[in-house]
Amino acid sequence: MLTHLLLISQNTQHEQALFDWVLSVAKSQGATVTVLRVLPEPEAGIFLWFEDVLPAEVMRQQSQTVLEEFAPWKVQANEAGVTFNTEVLFGKLFYKAIQYAMKESVDWLIKQTDEATQALTANVFNSQDKHLLRKCPCPVLLHKHGTDLPFKKIMASIDVDLDDETLVPCHFNQSILKQSLFVAQLQGRVYQSDTYLEAIHAWQADAENLVHYWNPDLSEADLLRWTENIRQQHLTAIETELSALNASDIEFEIVLPKGAAVEVIPHVVEQHQVGLLVMGTLGRGGLPGMIIGNTSEAVLEQINCSVLALKPDDFKSPVSGDLK
């Protein structure tokens, strides 16, 4: 259940489709929508060159201009019966946005990626996006500029621990799967359209080369059987995670590519034309104060789609929650 959605806006003309989607989601959930614009804080030294111009007055005028830009969205929200708030803050975008999200107990922080970043680099996310992904404690949904909404295909990326012979579902994996299922079900109710769900887990037979070294007489068939046994163990662990969801209306298709997650997940995401990748930005063994996991960082550097990024419940953001 969502109660408060925070949309970070940089240009309303380019974000209309995303706002429409956010508004539809909020209406179905009875949630409040807050639209936040973060502007650069004016440096006092600049105003020494001008007479009768004060930083506070410039900030007031800039805020008024932004609020006028938000006016059509306010009308649209009122017509939809959605509680709508606007905020204009000054400072670093990621810092102010995270502070606000923490202070107001936001359920999702939502932002569209920058068109210029996509045009100039191979990476979808700019530096502000990466700060949000690394440091925001609540789920962060970054919508890739120019891609379709609602999301037609959602992929949940999870990891399993085969050292745990009891195969108890992992709480963090369950959070990732539940969020993926929630978005799919939500879109189904709002748009009366089907959303395709996939669960991806990259696996490796780490001792494959060593097994062949220890027993050089091992046939290729025996080695294949040994590797297939490892794959089956991973498959069973994923099936255990999915069974714990008790979801009947939408099923996950399991995708089990062999290889390092950093190498295979971006490739599969592109190959399967995924619209939204739901993933954790800390591994299951991540420390509470750790900003982001190395694997997650590397995957995010390579994917070319929207992402919904989650943190473990005990994650501690390095950003202070005091918003002034």
Q: What do these coordinates show?
A:
The chain has 324 residues and is an alpha/beta fold. It has a domain at 150-324: Rossmann fold (3-Layer(aba) Sandwich), CATH 3.40.50.620. It contains ten helices and ten strands. The protein has helices spanning 16-29, 55-80, 93-103, 115-120, 127-135, 171-191, 208-214, 220-243, 261-271, 294-302; strands at residues 4-8, 32-39, 84-90, 108-112, 140-143, 153-157, 196-200, 252-255, 276-280, 306-310. Strands 3-2-1-4-5-10-9-6-7-8 form a ten-stranded mixed beta sheet, sandwiched between helices. Helix 6 links the parallel strand 6 and strand 7. Helix 3 (93-103) runs parallel beside helix 5 (127-135). The two termini are 29 Å apart. The model is unreliable at 284-291 (pLDDT under 50).
Brief descriptors of the model:
324 residues; alpha/beta; Rossmann fold; 10-stranded mixed β-sheet; 10 helices; 16% strand; elongated
Strand and helix map with partners:
Elements: E1 4-8, H1 16-29, E2 32-39, H2 55-80, E3 84-90, H3 93-103, E4 108-112, H4 115-120, H5 127-135, E5 140-143, E6 153-157, H6 171-191, E7 196-200, H7 208-214, H8 220-243, E8 252-255, H9 261-271, E9 276-280, H10 294-302, E10 306-310
Parallel strand pairs: 1-2, 1-4, 2-3, 4-5, 6-7, 6-9, 7-8, 9-10
Antiparallel strand pairs: 5-10
Helix pairs in contact: 3-5, 9-10
